[in-house]
Hints:
The chain has 5 helices and 6 strands; from the N terminus they run βββαβαβαβαα. α1 packs across α2 (59-75). Strands 3-4-5-6 form a 4-stranded parallel beta sheet, with helices on one face. A two-stranded antiparallel ribbon has the order 1-2. It starts with 9 loop residues before the first strand and ends with a helix. A hairpin with a 4-residue loop joins β1 (10-13) and β2 (18-22). It is an alpha/beta fold. The chain is globular and about 55 Å long.
Amino acid sequence: xxxxxxxxxxxxxxxxxxxxxxxxxxxxxxxxxxxxxxxxxxxxxxxxxxxxxxxxxxxxxxxxxxxxxxxxxxxxxxxxxxxxxxxxxxxxxxxxxxxxxxxxxxxxxxxxxxxxxxxxxxxxxxxxxxxxxxxxxxxxx
Length: 141
């Protein structure tokens, strides 16, 4: 895909699929590749690309994965600059929790704020209220 997203013609022949000579026009802007997963194999794959999207995990476990990603990228001579880390956290509920995650290198959190207030069976109105409360509780205004 990376070759296809570059200007000009390309073709590919591999073990699982092949393509004829082809070109994508217009050439798209740079498309980042984010890799998900919690296993070491997934982290190794993510480290070769542009970012990591974790799964539901504790902050401590996520920060350990971030450290592992730093090591893996360093082994390849890569920095963490322009490397994106996003994950849902099971135990982040306060501004201090989010600040700890950010200080450790986590740039984005996936969350469903209404879960904190109304649980998994929240109505649409409760979800909207939960979003507003979350914003207020984390002083995001």
